[in-house]
């Protein structure tokens, strides 16, 4: 055969393969996937067939490995039995009439009940919160459970690690979970693991990507939770990782960026619920199911006692637990919604819920950062500002050089939610998250003080200002928005 014939055969073969790829993609990609996500993937595969297929095979499935999903199902029964205090829930004024159905929703999705008799306090001081956690560890008698998306031993977190080491020396059992990829990217990763090993802590990586050790799943499926439980008596959760507030990145330090966080310190039956989440993740990584350890419940209920419900979410669950909770609360709001989310990239359902709220006459405030630390997410978020502003949402931009990384929202004067979950598609589908829904006006009042502080340190974005954005920014924002759907 001459060269021309060989060229014709090769080109014909490639065309046939290209056609087969497109046909298979149309059949496979949309299955059990949101239309926006399916459309984005199909565009990628049609425009760049071979590269698009490669990326789809690598990160196209947001499901955890089958064995991990089976473990989640196994342990849901354990979670149901791991919290006490259901009978301590106070269904008196001002119990909103709609709250019962939201509680049942959370129960059906994540197995955790609403429990009463809790106390909670907020801390938005970055270093003070690290020190507060270190102090609780210093007082530990039996066990300390540490679970953080990013755990790094540096100058700012040294007291935290010193407290862990001292606890081990006292005979306290210290168990530590840290996300593999997120912590691996930090400057002090190897030093951190060495420090944990030398002190004698029992530690494991969460969702490790170690194919040569037989441990692999989609690389961007991450455990984004932040939890600390001490003796089953005290728990911490929220948005803050255990690392210096600059994240020790040269680019952050050069720009002077500093992270602004919010964590909640909890006491009461709800701490057992937080511990159940840790036990679930520990079992997933180690196959060791820890013995249930709870503290006796005292009868010191007061008018300030809070009802609280832990809501776990992530690819280990069948549904998007956090998204469903957020949507339910947004639709039930009667007077006011205040949202704080550093990475605000809503899907269509959330965008509709928020704009519907303003059309119902609900006042909606959104706190975001004036500047961003992640380029694509920052620009994808900006692409929603116009529709939000036109709908009547007030957008408050927390002034640089701070990155407002706190994740929480309030509904009227009745309910607040705080946790690790952003209001973006990554948190809804790809990340393992944990949220806490709290019913109690005293807690919402604390949240209002935090929100008022944000407002004093923010500037309000107006529609007139936004419409003066240069064309290049609009193009970049819209391109980034398209990539957000590739899940």
Q: Could you describe the 3D structure shown?
A:
The chain is an alpha/beta fold and 487 residues long. The chain folds into three domains: 57 residues; 233 residues, Endonuclease, Chain A; 163 residues, Endonuclease Chain A (Endonuclease, Chain A), CATH 3.30.870.10. It is built from 19 helices and 17 strands. The chain has a 15-stranded mixed sheet, sandwiched between helices. Strands 7-13 form a two-stranded parallel ribbon. Helix 5 runs antiparallel to helix 12, helix 6 packs parallel to helix 7 and helix 12 packs parallel to helix 13. It is globular and about 80 Å long.
Key structural traits:
single chain; 487 residues; alpha/beta; Endonuclease, Chain A; 17 strands; 45% helix
Would you spell out the secondary-structure blueprint of this structure?
Elements: H1 3-28, H2 35-47, H3 49-59, H4 66-80, H5 99-110, E1 115-123, H6 126-138, E2 143-148, H7 158-169, E3 173-179, H8 180-184, H9 189-199, E4 202-206, E5 226-230, E6 234-238, H10 250-255, E7 258-260, E8 263-267, H11 270-286, E9 306-313, H12 321-332, E10 336-340, H13 348-359, E11 363-369, H14 375-382, H15 385-391, E12 394-398, E13 402-404, E14 408-411, E15 415-419, H16 425-430, E16 433-439, H17 441-456, E17 458-461, H18 463-467, H19 471-483
Parallel strand pairs: 2-3, 3-4, 7-13, 10-11, 11-12
Antiparallel strand pairs: 1-8, 1-9, 2-5, 5-6, 6-8, 9-16, 10-14, 12-17, 14-15, 15-16
